[in-house]
Amino acid sequence: MTNLLLATSSSAMSLASSSLYFAAPSPIDDPSLVGEFFKTMRRELDDLEAGICALMRYAGVSWDALAENYDVSRQALHQRLAARADEILAEAQTYPALNHSQFYFDLELVSNYANRMKASFDQDLSDVVEIWQERRKRAGWWRDNDS
Quick one: which of 83, 96, 102 has its CA closest to 5? Predict the structure, then answer.
């Protein structure tokens, strides 16, 4: 159970650190990175969901009870989450030290992002609003390399 909780905490912290990248006002100088970040965040969210599902199943919650919360059939939920939840459980048991170090790495990232945002959020927001407003006037700005 400890390893599964650690793996799920690590997934949540990883998603939080990725999310904070977009929470901070940013001009996103390389628009091609946005697609990669969306893929990463989707994967992290899926892993977190499967990890929570694995925790709930480990704690004795049935697929029927879980499906009620999703408003889908037990079979649909099982088909979507069971394999990944089993993988998360197996990985948690196999790589506990990795989850532990990854959790603290992401915790440090979250802390640094939050501190940076607290220090300069209002000014950053003001500066970035101007950048985005200028881009809005330029069709195809996301294909330019000079953004």
Answer: 96
120: tokens are 């300069």
Predicted TM-score (pTM) of this structure: 0.76
- What is the rounded distance in angstroms from the CA atom of residue 141 to the CA atom of residue 29? 11
Taking CA 50 as the corner, what is the angle to CA 20 and CA 84, rounded to the nearest 5 degrees? 120
Only one residue has tokens 């901070």, namely 24
Q: Is 92 exposed, middle or buried (0-12, 13-18, 19+ CB in 10 A)?
A: buried
Each residue of 31-88: pLDDT tens digit?
777 778 888 889 999 999 999 999 999 999 999 999 998 899 999 999 999 999 999 9
6 CB burial (10 A radius; 0-12, 13-18, 19+): buried
Q: Which amino acid appears at position 116 of this protein?
A: R
**CB of 114 closer than 8 Å to CB of 20:** yes
